Amino acid sequence: MTDTPPEEPTQGIGMAADRRAAFEAEISRVQLKTGSAANERRFLAAGVAAMVIGVVLALIAFIASTGMADTRDVISMSILAIFGLALAVLGAAVFLRYALGRFFRFWLLRLIFEQRPAE
User: Which pLDDT tens digit goes with each residue over 28-53?
Assistant: First the structure.
């Protein structure tokens, strides 16, 4: 007896070819109005820049405050360092929002598509 095992669907990354074609056809039929990808890239770059500038600003303020004798000057530099850290945290939040936004948008659309009743 030569039984051949039934063919299993491909276990690659992503959807099967026929499901992917149906998904892409459905998406093109819906014609969703989406935001500009250029704006997302700008905000992503702004988030990275804010993180870098904030960390550099905090480090410079900290290093500059070590050589100061007057307490008022040290406090001024501490305030500047705290502002730099706040800028870095804000930049990280903006970066994460726009970095994950596109992924979550596609993920939700795919989830909705897969859970709709078959036609």
Answer: 776 666 566 778 889 999 999 999 99
